[in-house]
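Example 3.2
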Amino acid sequence: MKTCPCCGQSLPPKIVVNGPVRQRIVDILASRPAGITADELTGLVYAEDPNGGPENHSIRVHIWHLNRFLARQCYQIKSTRGPAARYQLINTYDPEDDFTKSIEWSYKHIRERKANGGKGWRKP
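Structure, written as tokens:
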């Protein structure tokens, strides 16, 4: 995570996911590096719902789907076990990982293609 140059506080990463509920989950977890309990997360995600939103189980289902999506962005939502389980957004970036290198290669070539006006891929 990046840190503020003035105060040294960690800044939440900018992660975009599909769906408003999933985006709220990621935004909340990104702003709380120490983690948050499932009950607190459910309360914050569904705070604007007049019925209070669904049970905690729906949060777990959203997190399961989010983890499949976030893996491509080198992030993962991890949790501890037990009744006071805490969810945390973890950066899984490993510069020595072949998967990470292939993603960096893809993004590099996407940027090059955009710079070329969208004309073809340049061979490595």
